[in-house]
Amino acid sequence: FVSRLRARENGFCSTFGFSKPLSFSSSSVFQLQRADDIEGQIPCEKEDDAIEAEDRRRSVTDRAYWRRRIHSICAIHRNPDEALRILDGLCLRGYRPDSLNLSSVIHALCVAGRFDEAHRRCLLFVSSGFIPDERTCNVIIARLLDSGSPVSTLGVIHRLIGVKREFVPSLTNYNRLINQLCLINRVIDAHKLLFDMRNRGHLPNVVTYTTLICGYCKIRELDVAHKVFDEMRARGVRPNSLTLSVLIGGFLKERDVETGRRLMKELWEYMKDETDTSMKSAAFANLIDSMCMEGYFNDIFEIAENMPQ
């Protein structure tokens, strides 16, 4: 029987032109896959060799080429280490990194979640005399703020201002930084930024003041929060529904129900005039959340019954 089976196998192989019987064992499949991988690697290796040859051929003065090259490594291949290796080699040959190079590297590091290194690299570039333009500075700060490490980002801002006196962070970056500082209870530092942005020509807006009021309410500094609210009005910045809702939440946290109810009546009037539906929804949701957190459930049911539509 065995001899007949082998004969059939040999006949099958000879009929279809196979020198050996087909095998579908795991080792055979692995060998086939490995062969495919090797064949796939050959074009990639050739492409890499061609790129390296082109790098050697290009002069350090060909800035357009190196901008594209570093941007491609960072944005497409997402390999900031390779970009930094190339930049280090170029600097040894007299190349000075520009704003686009710095932006590409910092962005790639942040995408990789390496925010601490992104902060350090940015400081290192600036200390080495590679100062980006104002627009790029704001782009980099916005990217670094994604780390949620406001103290580190504030250090970068101070360093940039130190070497580039005319640099002014954008209003959005100021507001984001103030918010992040308030989240870690560094409200005094956040308030200092309000004065700093005003000295640099920015007018704090409703977002700035609302964020700062929320920060003071969080640390139970209601007197200061109310002063910021009064200053806001005195400077011609009209509070919105969310501003009042945040302030009410602060008074409820301190069990000052009387002031909270008085401001609540004012809130209803603001919400009548509020044209932004999302703002009204946010204000109402924040108010209900604050009341739930402090246990004012009976008042919530009363609001549900009597709240003006």
UniProtKB/TrEMBL annotation:
InterPro entries: PPR_rpt (IPR002885), TPR-like_helical_dom_sf (IPR011990)
PPR repeats, residue ranges: 170-204, 205-239
Keyword Repeat: yes
Keyword Repeat included in the entry's annotation: yes
Signal sequence bounds: none
Pfam hit, one: PPR_2
PROSITE patterns linked to this entry: PPR
Keywords tagged on the record: Repeat
Recorded family membership: Belongs to the PPR family. P subfamily.
Protein name, UniProt field: Pentatricopeptide repeat-containing protein
Source organism: Noccaea caerulescens
Source organism phylogeny: Eukaryota, Viridiplantae, Streptophyta, Embryophyta, Tracheophyta
